[in-house]
Amino acid sequence: MSQPSSTQFTGNPHAIRLSASLLDRRGGECEDFAAVKARPQLWPRVFEKRRYAPWETFPLGLVMDVLNAVEFEAARIDEALTRTLTRARNTVHPGVAAWVRHACHTYLETAESLAAVLSAEGVELRPERNPRIVQGGRSVTETRSLTVWGRWYGSPDGTVVEFRRMRLRRPLGSADTPSAQAMAYVAAVGKQVADPSELYSVIPVPVRPVPVPRRVRVVEVGLTTGTDRVLLDSTDMEEIRSAYASNVRPVTVRLLAGGGRTPGQDCAECKARASCGALAHAPGLLGLDDRGTHRRTWSITTSRYYQVCPAQAHLRELRLPGDGETSPAAERGRNVHSWLEAAHDRGRPCTPADLPEADADDCGIADGLMEREEYRQARPYLLRHLAVCPLRGPGEISEVRPEPKIAVYDEQADVVVLAHPDLLRRVDGRLVYREQKTSAVPRGITAENALEMVPQLALAVCLIAAGVFGDTAGLVELEQLTPVSAEVLTFDAADPATVSAARKVVLDRVRPWHRDVAFRATPGPWCRFCPVSRWCPDASGAPAHAVDDLAFDPLTGELLASPGRPDSRVEAIAAALAEPEPDDEPPF
Q: Which ranges carry the PD-(D/E)XK endonuclease-like domain (predicted)?
């Protein structure tokens, strides 16, 4: 197989090691990243020494270490937890430690429940230390292997094999997904790795034969919710092989071929980054004078969480599961954004005909995006948008891009900067970058304080001034919508004073985060709305209405009013409360 396109590599492109979970990648993610990741003997021609975080970044790995001690060394759970957390190679944040403790107890309780169900059928399963792998190839240099990451169990006679995939939050899979079918295939035909430590370090991996199973189970365990889901329980080994051949193999062929480059979250760890023409480079974009601890990604969302509480930003960065549901205010904002994205994707202005009454037989764009009651809540904001729709003109509108994903590498800071404009367009050839904000009441954001209050505007100015979009001139707009008003503020990214102010805002936001290695909590009444506060030992129990006399909507949690002059931290709290809670389960 040839190397992925548009990369400069050395090594062996024919050694393939594919993890079944990599098959869960969503559409729109970088195809070349996955193709390169599956080739462990392929490296950039220009050597880069990888730097690692000085803190534990993989909470599931800690869970695995604890469970190994319990299941293979007969350690007591509390003893195993203490030993693992205190002897970890890197610092374990207190919030991570709290989640690991919860996850390990939850897993063992779920394991007892699964064992009880099988015991009623006369089946006993024992933990297996040695994972299974499927591998082959015509030579040592041309090998292919399929691996799965999780926990293995088998009956004493080897006739029943069970693989358990661990999910951070809750079970998500189904029997017909390629990843589940690949996991079943490894369980059905794979051999055991002779030495578990060689699974990801040796090619090919020495293995030992095992009895051919007569029953295969694939189970997902949610480590936060304590729930499990049996994705597959089959005695038809031929059907497992057939499903792999017909459903999984075509997906793996496409994944390994690569060919599509989409800069984004993956860029920080991608081996192709240095030679990827799709990733924009802007040295000095963030204004930092050092390279920090290691290569990371940063966005205004990261900044917002960090400004509220560094511990919250850290736990979210590690993708620990949040608690609670997305607020009505966040749902409203998401619905407004999704409607505008769909409407602007048509390339023509929004009109009153696009927004029929919520009880109409046909609500047009909204019917494919949201429920009628959600549309009823969003419609007043959308009606106000009509007067300031960016596709109305004046001027010739071209290159309309709703909700594009922007990734830029600042090599001076060793940070991949992510941005997500609500709309990019050109007006008479000039770039215009628009951000849109909804709020129940005016937030007191003016032309004088907008860069500070809405720092994504400052980042937008810096991106344009750095030439990320091809030229260094353009406008940045803020569209503010309430149920009764609409206003657009405009900033010239070619104006030196504007650029200077924007750079100061961005530097002030990123510098504390870039230098932090402890991510200590700053507890307060806002902890009530923090989705990861259940893992934080320092979380405050103070009621939310006590936040510096701020006025919150008791039903939605939305910040309605604040005394005195607008404050950037208050605005960060308000924005964090209105941010939809992501349900972004890592593909492990």
A: 297-537
